[in-house]
């Protein structure tokens, strides 16, 4: 365990301090998908290697993580990787197809589930840990390094469906009609996710984020079973290994269930999606819970005075409580890079 995770000293990095429950002014900021196609230097690297190779080559993944830090001096650097690296590392076939997104060999029965081998994950993800160690050496001293994973439900959606989807109907049907099979998949994923994240922290991640992008598809009873319960288990396992590790949870489009999620999973920070009124959410959660979010990525794409007003309104509404400024979902590829520069300036301008 390093100093930033030790219980005695409050860390000096602004984003980590906020995760420890201390309000900063102006708030620290980073953006989901801050490394991405909207940056010309990212598109240049894209020509050189396919997506999986970019994730699994420490030179490239380090460079892609650093690009938005160099340009915008973000307070957080998120590892360049993907939530689908875990199923791939367990042996599921994965390809990122241009114009279509991820394509996986769908898991629909016990035999396919049994072929997934969590024992392969540590070795298969060694390059990711190498990337994290390099980043810890190369990042500016005030920048916090974030590791991440998908939450089990969201990762299961892709594993069962075999691709992206609007409804993930096959996955949700499996949960309802073959609960033993779906539970076995969720249990396997929950343990493997915790193990992988412990490895990321060992390698240098200073905080971690759990992305549950499709949590909002579930009715409350299943939300408790497939979102809250596995997240809580992962938080427990991480805290056994690293008692003061800070964990951000993102139950996207969970609506009012997000408050219960924050309380029951014991995450340190709740990342709010675009639909959340942050002022209302602040009233529903403890004062020392960090809130992260939540400018609409399309407002960032549009830019201009309207963007500056919206961003400063979110920032000002959260003043006095621990808040990490971010978007409500990822930067879209059509975003002009100068809009991101204007956003950073607007959030940091407290004159
Ligand atoms: O070069 C390319 O065009 C590949 C596009 C790309 C990128 C840049 C994919 C494919 N993944 C990523 C990186 C990524 N993905 C990061 C790290 C970088 C950063 O944030 O700056 C992270 C945290 C993710 C997480 C991720 N992947 C999520 C959760 C967050 C969210 O966006 O909701 C999800 C759902 C994925 C799956 C995925 N990977 C890639 C795509 C296009 C998708 C979405 C597929 C779909 O459902 O349509």
TrEMBL record:
<dbReference type="InterPro" id="IPR006361">
    <property type="entry name" value="Uroporphyrinogen_deCO2ase_HemE"/>
</dbReference>
<feature type="binding site">
    <location>
        <position position="329"/>
    </location>
    <ligand>
        <name>substrate</name>
    </ligand>
</feature>
<feature type="binding site">
    <location>
        <begin position="33"/>
        <end position="37"/>
    </location>
    <ligand>
        <name>substrate</name>
    </ligand>
</feature>
<keyword id="KW-0210">Decarboxylase</keyword>
<feature type="binding site">
    <location>
        <position position="82"/>
    </location>
    <ligand>
        <name>substrate</name>
    </ligand>
</feature>
<dbReference type="Pfam" id="PF01208">
    <property type="entry name" value="URO-D"/>
</dbReference>
<comment type="pathway">
    <text>Porphyrin-containing compound metabolism; protoporphyrin-IX biosynthesis; coproporphyrinogen-III from 5-aminolevulinate: step 4/4.</text>
</comment>
<keyword id="KW-0963">Cytoplasm</keyword>
<comment type="subunit">
    <text>Homodimer.</text>
</comment>
<feature type="binding site">
    <location>
        <position position="213"/>
    </location>
    <ligand>
        <name>substrate</name>
    </ligand>
</feature>
<dbReference type="InterPro" id="IPR000257">
    <property type="entry name" value="Uroporphyrinogen_deCOase"/>
</dbReference>
<keyword id="KW-0627">Porphyrin biosynthesis</keyword>
<dbReference type="GO" id="GO:0019353">
    <property type="term" value="P:protoporphyrinogen IX biosynthetic process from glutamate"/>
</dbReference>
<feature type="binding site">
    <location>
        <position position="158"/>
    </location>
    <ligand>
        <name>substrate</name>
    </ligand>
</feature>
<dbReference type="GO" id="GO:0005829">
    <property type="term" value="C:cytosol"/>
</dbReference>
<feature type="site" description="Transition state stabilizer">
    <location>
        <position position="82"/>
    </location>
</feature>
<dbReference type="InterPro" id="IPR038071">
    <property type="entry name" value="UROD/MetE-like_sf"/>
</dbReference>
<dbReference type="GO" id="GO:0004853">
    <property type="term" value="F:uroporphyrinogen decarboxylase activity"/>
</dbReference>
<comment type="function">
    <text>Catalyzes the decarboxylation of four acetate groups of uroporphyrinogen-III to yield coproporphyrinogen-III.</text>
</comment>
<keyword id="KW-0456">Lyase</keyword>
<protein>
    <recommendedName>
        <fullName>Uroporphyrinogen decarboxylase</fullName>
        <ecNumber>4.1.1.37</ecNumber>
    </recommendedName>
</protein>
<comment type="similarity">
    <text>Belongs to the uroporphyrinogen decarboxylase family.</text>
</comment>
């Amino acid at each position: 365990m390093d100093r930033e995770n030790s219980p005695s000293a409050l860390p000096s990095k602004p984003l980590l301090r906020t995760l420890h429950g201390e309000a900063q002014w102006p708030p620290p900021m980073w953006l989901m998908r801050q490394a991405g196609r909207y940056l010309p230097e990212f598109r240049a690297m894209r020509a050189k290697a396919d997506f999986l190779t970019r994730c699994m080559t420490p030179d490239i993944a380090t460079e892609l993580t650093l690009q938005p830090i160099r340009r915008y001096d973000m307070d957080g650097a998120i590892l360049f990787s993907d939530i689908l690296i875990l199923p791939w590392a367990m042996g599921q076939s994965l390809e990122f197809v241009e114009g279509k997104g991820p394509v996986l060999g769908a898991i629909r029965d016990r035999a396919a589930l049994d072929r997934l081998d969590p024992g392969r994950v540590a070795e298969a993800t060694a390059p990711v840990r190498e990337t994290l160690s390099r980043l810890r050496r190369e990042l500016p001293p005030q920048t916090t390094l974030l590791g991440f994973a998908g939450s089990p439900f969201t990762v299961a959606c892709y594993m069962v469906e075999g691709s992206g989807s609007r409804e993930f109907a096959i996955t949700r049907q499996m949960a309802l009609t073959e609960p033993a099979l779906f539970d076995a998949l969720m249990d396997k994923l929950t343990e493997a996710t915790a193990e992988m994240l412990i490895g990321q922290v060992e390698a240098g991640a200073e905080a971690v984020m759990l992305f549950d992008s499709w949590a909002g598809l579930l009715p409350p009873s299943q939300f408790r079973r497939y979102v809250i319960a596995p997240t809580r288990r992962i938080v427990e396992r991480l805290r056994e290994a690293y008692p003061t590790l800070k964990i951000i949870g993102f139950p996207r489009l969970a609506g009012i269930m997000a408050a219960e999620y924050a309380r029951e999973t014991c995450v340190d920070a709740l990342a709010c999606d675009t639909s959340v009124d942050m002022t209302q959410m602040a009233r529903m959660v403890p004062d020392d819970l960090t809130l992260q979010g939540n400018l609409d990525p399309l407002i960032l794409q549009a830019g201009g005075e309207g963007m500056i007003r919206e961003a400063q309104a979110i920032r000002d509404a959260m003043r006095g409580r621990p808040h990490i400024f971010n978007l409500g979902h990822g930067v879209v590829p059509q975003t002009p890079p100068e809009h991101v520069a204007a956003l950073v300036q607007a959030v940091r301008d407290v004159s």
